[in-house]
Specification:
single chain; eight-stranded antiparallel beta sheet; mainly beta; about 0% helix
């Protein structure tokens, strides 16, 4: 269990750092309701996303794709992205280097 706090990032969406090191960070994003949104954004970090549970429609650089349990993908540094929850669940994201703004 993580000692990091659970932080609200929007309506029905929370974030919790699970592990961190200056070179990498693991974060759980939990979506509690259909229609919950991970707002469009970009960052300098390379991000890998693993769909632990639920179903999500992602916009990755202008291309929409649906992902479900067991799916994973990588988002390059600087690529604009966001998602909409189609079925409540959890995304596990890894960032390199770590997201200091999450600490």
């Amino acid at each position: 269990m993580s000692d990091f706090p659970i932080v609200s990032t929007g309506e029905n969406v929370t974030r919790q750092v699970l592990a961190d090191h200056p070179d990498i960070m693991v974060v759980a994003f939990r979506f509690a309701a259909i229609g919950a949104v991970g707002l469009m954004h970009d960052h300098r970090h390379v991000q890998s996303t693993y769909v632990e549970s639920g179903r999500f429609r992602f916009n990755l650089g202008g291309v929409e794709q649906e992902y479900g349990p067991g799916d994973s993908f990588v988002i390059p540094s600087g690529q604009r992205h966001g998602c909409v929850c189609l079925e409540p669940g959890t995304l596990v994201d890894c960032f390199t280097p770590r997201r200091d703004d999450f600490l």
